[in-house]
Design brief:
The chain has helices spanning about 1-5, 30-35, 45-55, 65-80, 85-90, 105-115, 130-135, 150-165, 180-185, 190-195, 200-205, 225-250, 250-265; strands at about 60-65, 95-100, 100, 145. It is mostly helical and about 280 residues long. The strands form two sheets. It has a two-stranded parallel sheet with strand order 1-4. A two-stranded antiparallel ribbon has the order 2-3. β2 (about 95-100) and β3 form a beta hairpin. α6 runs parallel beside α10 (about 190-195). The longest helix has 27 residues, at about 225-250. The two termini are about 35 Å apart.
Length: about 280
């Protein structure tokens, strides 16, 4: 969002034309049609070389505490069933129930166990990949690094972008989540498992490990909250179904079918396929 607004390419009017599923309007910023940005891989070779090596370009990466990031990824991808989450990962991390109510802490503990034992099932989703695999600081000449949980460092990035773009943007937060603190769902055993999975991040970025309670009180959703979460998941499934249908309708066969309808309608002087809706569905 920050880069899109700084470059002036952000176009919120395109939201109504998206056919890909999203859990929240704020997450549509990842769509190129909305943010208007250009991927590095879509640029010419000489442009890429300049961006990666010229001192005039800002090359920055942002990291996040591995455990906080792991919980955030689980809450969004597994617990909330975000679109695009690998089905295998969801199957491995079924809700842990107590009298029909979801036990959040036990469900998170199961996730930690599964990602430890069957790591590859999760790594098709970049939200679960170690940050060192994504950033690869040993291969790129970065000139700024920030940590998401450090407001001063994030503000430094905002100030630098404002200086370069001549803007006066402020730091915004878009992914709020359920408001559950890591300490409410993570005991030391769970933390140890996740720290082992993301050991490379700890060594690469020098993250500190944190101590957690040996045991924690179970965090249970109420019956109403459990029903609401399941309803939310069902709405995401319906959204994905609609998106899939929309994508299929914009495919090759659909396109030729629409051309055929248009030609027949024109040749028949509007007698056939004269309902405007037929031109779209």
């Amino acid at each position: 969002m920050l880069l899109a607004k700084a470059s002036g390419s952000y176009d919120q009017s395109r939201l109504d034309h998206l056919i890909s599923p999203h859990m929240a309007k704020s997450q549509t910023i990842h769509e190129l049609g909305v943010n208007g940005l250009t991927k590095l891989i879509d640029m010419k070779a000489n442009q890429i070389d300049e961006i990666l090596h010229s001192p005039d370009w800002l090359r920055v990466y942002a990291t996040r505490d591995p455990l906080t990031r792991a919980y955030s990824a689980w809450e969004n991808r597994i617990f909330s069933r975000a679109p695009g989450t690998p089905e295998g990962a969801i199957e491995l991390c079924q809700d842990q129930l107590v009298d029909g109510r979801i036990n959040v802490s036990e469900s998170f503990a199961l996730f930690a166990k599964m990602i430890t034992e069957q790591t590859n099932e999760f790594m098709d989703d970049h939200h679960f990949l170690p940050q060192s695999h994504i950033v690869q600081p040993d291969k790129f000449n970065y000139n700024m690094a920030v940590r998401v949980e450090q407001p001063a460092e994030m503000q430094k990035l905002v100030d630098e972008i404002n200086r370069r773009a001549g803007t006066s943007l402020t730091l915004e937060r878009h992914n709020v989540g359920f408001g559950i603190k890591l300490e409410q769902v993570c005991d030391q055993h769970t933390a140890n498992r996740l720290q082992a999975v993301y050991e490379m991040d700890y060594s690469t970025f020098k993250f500190e490990t944190h101590a957690f309670a040996a045991t924690i009180e179970p965090l249970l959703l109420s019956a109403t909250e459990t029903a609401m979460l399941r309803g939310f998941r069902a709405s995401i499934e319906r959204l994905q179904a609609v998106s899939f249908t929309a994508r299929s309708l914009t495919g090759f066969r659909f396109g030729w079918r629409q051309i055929y309808k248009s030609i027949v309608r024109k040749l028949s002087f509007g007698k056939k396929y004269n309902d405007p809706q037929n031109l779209f569905w």
